[in-house]
Automatic annotation (TrEMBL), chain A:
Its main location: membrane. This is Tetratricopeptide repeat protein 7B. The keyword Glycoprotein does not apply. GO terms for biological process: phosphatidylinositol phosphate biosynthetic process; protein localization to plasma membrane. It is found in: Cell membrane; Cytoplasm, Cytosol. Component of a phosphatidylinositol 4-kinase (PI4K) complex, composed of PI4KA, EFR3 (EFR3A or EFR3B), TTC7 (TTC7A or TTC7B) and HYCC (HYCC1 or HYCC2). Interacts with PI4KA, interaction is direct. Interacts with EFR3 (EFR3A or EFR3B), interaction is direct. Interacts with HYCC (HYCC1 or HYCC2), interaction is direct. Association with the PI4K complex is strongly reduced by TMEM150A. It comes from Danio rerio (Zebrafish). Component of a complex required to localize phosphatidylinositol 4-kinase (PI4K) to the plasma membrane. The complex acts as a regulator of phosphatidylinositol 4-phosphate (PtdIns(4)P) synthesis. In the complex, plays a central role in bridging PI4KA to EFR3B and HYCC1, via direct interactions. Keywords: Cell membrane, Cytoplasm, Membrane, Phosphoprotein, Repeat, TPR repeat. GO terms for cellular component: cytosol; plasma membrane. It comes from the Eukaryota. The gene is ttc7b.
Amino acid sequence: MTARKSGSRLETEIERCRSEGQWDKIPELVRQLSAKLISNDDLGELLLGEAKLQQYLKENPIKQGSSPRGPRPRLQEVRKHLTAALDRGNLKPEYMQEASLIMAKLCYVEADYREALNQYSRVNLDEMQLVGAPVYRLSMIAEAYATKGLCLEKVPMASPSLSNSIADKDQEIITCYEKSGDIALLYLQEVEKALSAGIQNRSPKPGPVTQEQELGYFLETGLQRAHVIHFKNGNLTRGVGRFREILRAVETRTTQNLRMTIARQLAEILLRGMCEQSYWNPLEDPPNQSPLDDPLRHSPHTKDYALSRRPRIYSGENLFCPQENTEEALLLLLISESMANRDAVLSRIPEHNNDRIISLQSASLVYDLLTIALGRRGQYEMLSECLERAMKFAFEEFHLWFQLALSLMAAGKSARAVKVLKECIRLKPDDPTIPLLAVKLCIGNLHWLEEGERFAKIVIDMGEKAAEFRAKGYLAIGLVYSLKATDASLRGMQEEYQKKALSAFQRAQSLSPTDHLAVFYLALQLAISRQIPEALGYVRQALQLQGDDVHSLHLLALLLSAQKHYHDALNIIEMALSEYPENFILLFTKVKLETLCRGPEEALLSCKRMLQIWKSCYNLTNPSDSGRGSSLLDRAVADRRQLNAMTLPDFSDPETASHASSSLSGSEPVSPLFPLSSLYSPPPPKATESNQRRSSHAFCDHAPHRRFSSASNLPDAFFHGFDSFIGVCSVHATSIAASRVEQALSEVASSLQSSAPKQGPLHPWMTLAQIWLHAAEVYIGMGKAAEATACTQEAANLFPMSHNVLFMKGQVAELRGNVDEAKRWYEEALSISPTHVKTMQRLGLILHQLQRYSLAEKILRDAVQVNSTAHDVWNSLGEVLQAQGNDAAATECFLTALELEASCPILPFTIIPRTL
Amino acid sequence: MLAMDQGVVEEWLSEFKTLEETAVYNYAVSLKEKGSLVPALYKVIRENYSDLLEPVCHQLFEFYRSGEPRLQRFTLQFLPELVWSYLSVTAARDPHCSGCIEALLLGIYNLEIVDKDGQSKVLSFTIPSLSKPSVYHEPSSIGSLALTEGALANHGLSRVVYSGPHLQRETFTAQNRFEVLTFLLLCYNASLSYMSGSSLQSLCQLSSRVSICGYPRQQVRRYKGISSRLMVTSEFLVQLITGIHFALCNGEVDLGSKALDDVLYRAQLELFPEALLVGNAIKSSLHGASLKSNKEGTRSIQVEITPTASRISRNAVTSLSIRGHRWKRHDAVDLGSPDELTEIAEVDEGICTQASGAQSSPPTIVISSSAGGAAAGAGKLAGKGLRRLTGRSSKEKDKEKDAATGMDQLTRKQAAVRAMSENLELLSLKRLTLTASQSVPKSGSLSLSRTASAVFSRSFEQVSNVFSGNQPSSRASSPTSNHVAEQDEGVAYLDHISPAHQHRQRSPTISIHVTSDL
């Protein structure tokens, strides 16, 4: 703003006072002024009149929505002053205009609208200069426009019959308000600039710094009424446009609160009233015909005026301009949130209660809208961070705590989520869903069974109050007991927990007979306890309730295999696969069954199919790919011949085998770095996880859109889940520890090796490793050592420290007859996972061969402790005992083995995930 | 189905077949005028066994394939009804009769997952970040963000994919069913503004039915269709909720709120955190707002003029103002850079509670002045100055008031008087207070524990009377007697009277010189 060249300091001072609203100083200054020149009397009258009017308005502020009432005695003086100033006509033209404006304002305050309008028409507002105007005059002009709009609204139409004129009048009113708003923004910016310049200029003596300027009724009206009218008329397009104009203006201290509110309101409209297709971005023109507007009203969509000066707007290069309604809503909400956060009332004394409630309400709304916007796009990680910031407001506020817990759960941060849920339970003890959510997390990756039991008991103790959740509570505690049974190392404890689990499941099923989950888990538990016929009955019931539940079908197949009806089982699996073509758990079972039923060639075909499916699902680069697409995977997939007929010239020769494998693993990490960035998308069918209600126990838990899963959860899940795939039935607590060891070791190993690190989440690679190991097993069954080595090597490239890989290497060595080497591998595998029963069994057998009977016996006894239903372990133990001469015990072992084998499924029942 | 409806539909079927390429656009525009067409089509879709179903589905697919946006939207409006039809048939395990609807749904899906060039479409969006300037803000003006890992990772704008790429699907299997349906709902939600009321109603009905069939609530809602449970996934529910939200705010209040309740009910039973999260947020955000059902076509939004001034009273300690607080410490308070000082000076910080604001007159620690003489007038309001923030209830404070001893008051007041006379002309309290505290190097001088033991009195006047009553001062034992049971958790005394506050006159500060002198 270019300051007017003022002659004297006094005039500057007067201008400053008028700009800053220090009306009480004016009379003094006027006295000084009139001492100077007689001709300044008129100016003095003008100033006095203005000062008195402003002070009156300060002491009797007009409230929004109320109308001025009528002439007031105090205002007589003002009128006297102003009339004096105007009538004498000695004032300079600008001051005459100012006097008229103030007069018009007075008329409005005294409810004389027509007179005010007359004044305005005399002055001709549109021609008042904005460029070079002093700051106070901008305020005056802004207020004048606003007042004019108010008067126009209050004056009834002369001839209401013509609809055109109504539309015109509306348009004029709106234009007045819009102009007023624009000029008000400009004024506020100028005032702030002047103030900050003033602070620097003046000596820093502590003077009262007007921190926040109160806007006053007229300026507020001017700023806000335009969009209120737009929305009332149903003209969303222009309303939104007006909001955007206000927001684009650079902020000042006074407008901060207004911006916060408007940002929030605009975000509301964007989320509630707009969709992606009806959006236009802030920098482009609004569409001519928008579904957002009331079709019955046709108002022009563009502004029909242009001011000579506009408020400053945010500008620059590379300004972020949102392209979507969600983006814009997010931006606005983030801005609003940061402002709301500043206003968080921290004090907790009761006299600030109202303030706390106010700040809580406004912040709460912002956070809710943020949740809606981010939830739409699945960005739960970011949402959990935002909601953490909300915790300032959240003391004893259940809603925010609960939302935080849910967002942590959705983002996969299970441990924190459980802790927050505990607090939620404390805040709302009667809600059964909260402990159930906690149990779900505990049973999942966390494997916190004690905690899970406690939470489940909370639900059960609620009794009838839990209503429909009672059954769920019993289901939850049943699952906890079932998992505890699997973990327990003493047989007595195992049985006790199994009994408890069974009774809980039965209770759940009786409470809610139409819930197929309860029936299914009952069947599963019966199966684990080897009560096969009852289990079959229940699983059929479950299938009647929900015909295409993948786990029920799988369980049915396993039960049939336990009854040795392998062909029936295979049929069921194939039926299930028709509904779930990319479900790897089913495919693994299929491979096993085919090995038994139809021969290993079929099984190998299935393996090949799995590789194909894997490749199409997870469009990732194999880390051992040297970039020429010549990896075994690609060749296997591309080759039309069956895998077993393929000659693998590189690998048939034992000397070159190691060389070739090292050439594969030692290949330079040329694999095109798969961008870890956001363009990575999670695999669509998400195989066994996500879209199923119960995510596979072996994989990460249920958030399908999680992009950067915390690395610590997955390997745990993988490694002990991997166990279950290869046939060890237990999902042991100790195996979780083992998995952590493996993860640590593999990190070290991969840093030493030159293989490229795997990108992105780990579970696709785990699946791939499992496929290779299955193929290796089939080859071992066929007696083809070289191919088995190749497959094992592929898996070893991915996870060199996995005990499953080591176990497989041991088996290959055994096949080749290298007993010592096999023993070494088994021992290595056991050092990583001491409770891997299969390894223990094979090691025991080797030791038996080597005639170290007592050691073999010890190892086999340990294995039996871990898993008392492993019939082959019992069998081996019997052999060892027999070799030692302990025939009675040996007989018992053999009998037990026979019994167990009679009801042994092809894969242990525990591979079926047990989640809530 | 009535013959009339049948006739309308058949006419519509034949019309489009004979249409030429160029006339498609005009035809699309003219579709709006056919009022009876849409309800007739709804009837066809609902009755699964109608023979018109197949040609209708085929025609709708042709509409979609034509690429004309209006025609596509025309097809999309039937999506909720089609989805319901498909799901209910699947649940009833009725193998036939849903074939054409399946084909239509899959056809739309396969068309939508590729863009114009035939490449797989990847839907992504940019997450805005406050650290980059935008059309609405400048990074410097927004306060510093917390330096979290997430904030650092998000520095700069990142484009995030939220859907895609998807594979082409030939048939529905149990595995891909909800993936396809969720994506279709995503497309539907992208065009919500163009959907008519009947479409939104159908969406609400779909949501309700999918959520409650087979559950005890079905009895409450009295829906007699299918009675077996329908499986749903969390993302599917989230998309449904998004649509319901729009419907709620654009005219379908009753149906919408019922649908939202039902979906939340189901999400609770299934323990889906994502659906619960978004559903709770919607419910809570609409809690205060009164939604009235508007007539069809009017979408007016209620907006009020909001006061620009902050409604939070100036005394309340906010996050912004707490920076300027001085905490009870035994060492000199570190107040940061001078820049911060000036900033703090501008910020309305403070602990000066209003005498008028609270319902009960707040207890005041009056370290007031009215020593006779010159300081008397100034002393009048000084007492309002020193306050203390505690977390205790006012009851306890009342007790304290009664237990006030004159002695403490006296000593403090005397000191206060002295201090006050020094500071009488200083009006900008905050600045002074801060500078004063900075210049107080005496260790332990800021032991506000002493001031912590100040006495409460109900009103300032009382105190001044008391004070004038007991002239002799025994200054001895004041620091020791800590009447106040409240533990002072390091809340500072900040005497502070906001100059703008109407009820006070300009009053002097009582700086913490007070305590240091004791």
